[in-house]
Amino acid sequence: MTILRSALDTGSGEYAEAAQAMLDKIAEVDEAHATAVAGGGPSKVERHRKRGKLTARERIELLLDEDSPFLELCPLAAWGSDFQVGASVVTGIGVVEGVECMIVANDPTVRGGTSNPWTLRKSLRANEIVERNRLPVISLVESGGADLPTQKEVFIPGGALFRDLTRLSAAGIPTIALVFGNSTAGGAYIPGMSDHTVMVKERSKVFLGGPPLVKMATGEDADDESLGGADMHASVSGLADHFAVDEPDALRIGRSIVKRLNWRKKGPTPRAEVREPLHPADELLGVVPTDLKVPFDPREVIARVVDGSDFDEFKPRYGSSLVTGWAELHGYPVGILANARGVLFSEESQKATQFIQLANRAETPLLFLHNTTGYMVGAEYEQGGIIKHGAMMINAVSNSKVPHISLLMGASYGAGHYGMCGRAYDPRFLFSWPSAKSAVMGPAQLAGVISIVGRAAAEAKGQPFDEAGDAAMREAVENQIEAESLPMFLSGRLYDDGVIDPRDTRSVLGMCLSAIHNAPIEGAEGFGVFRM
């Protein structure tokens, strides 16, 4: 039998403690999400509404198919920075006329929807997802362009936004711009470079230079409408393909455009009949211990995520610190690699390498479930070839061509983060649970290494070692690394695509797999040289 049986004791004190700790962390994440949803605050939102305008999220809601889900991406961008959480733009995947689309919506209640460095990084991440997964992109435009005080960080790299639009179009990926307000200066190129452009009567303002700039540059007196109004662009310049009478009409036209795209997915279709897991998703709250040094069985997670809790394990008796095997998730086949006891040894590395090769041969997407402290160190393991075996695994991950999805559940430290397809290894999507931590190593280990190096340096110089100073240093370093390894800190820097409630894992992964299958699923034809 391949059905996973659960050994999780949901009545134990340890489970209750872990579940409560997870709920507390989820509440912190929810509070940060609420800050992003609030935009520029009540006064800015009210002023926006008095102008007869919808908010960014209201526009998205009207654009999407009724009662369909919306997978918001990078909602915590800019968390912990000087900028508004969410980075003044909403990005995510939603269904429009039955078609999965990437939606990018400026939030005009936050500094007029202007782009700061985090806005740029978030928008470029959205474009990356669009290109790799072949998703039509709909831009809901209302932006004053670059946030001028930060122009030195926005202007030069920001040109990639317009470059991407043209490359997407050249790749046959539809680009649609619905313009609800200002789209000025460089921002004018978003409607200018999109395949389809809709403008709203007496609302849209699209020009390279507004009236003040034109006056300064040429001495010409011109008003907004004659320079860049919707009526002018629809009847004179030809920049507007469609003329909407108001915002709901623009969204209706946008839906109509998607309906006529004749869009087809190029990946395999999922199984028609999908079986729910045999174990409830709510139990995922207490799977991860409060102390990440305590291992947990990732099969308990797999049993609550995959279809029918059905999992065919690969090499279960070899390299047992890494669980590998085959399953289906919302009808899509998937290969899973999940850390069981944290450390990756040579056996786990070799096992992972073979499994990744098999997944590429079978053209099956891979799901990486992180809880690793890294590759094993020590004389015995160095002599046994841990470097070449770890490199073998990282080689396989790097050159694998099937889509990868990563989920950080617990620890994700050191080169183990790389071997399990961390952000630098281009997973199609990467999410974190609130329990996750990621850094070069654990806080205590990192502080201890610095302490040992300092002690050795003092000894080599024949100087006394400052024990009190060392203790203060270790405490400061541990606190710093702890803070910088937490998921909201990392999500704020766009090192993941969002911090999710464990109970939503199956839905989030299912939406990602569905989006991935807009593009063909193809395995690698070859890998780099494996050191044996």
From TrEMBL:
Coiled-coil residues: none
Residue stretches making up the CoA carboxyltransferase N-terminal domain: 22-273
Gene3D superfamilies associated with the record: 2-enoyl-CoA Hydratase, Chain A, domain 1
Pfam families found in the cross-reference section: Carboxyl_trans
Domain CoA carboxyltransferase C-terminal: 28-280, 276-523
The protein's name in its UniProt record: Acyl-CoA carboxylase subunit beta
Protein source organism: Saccharopolyspora endophytica
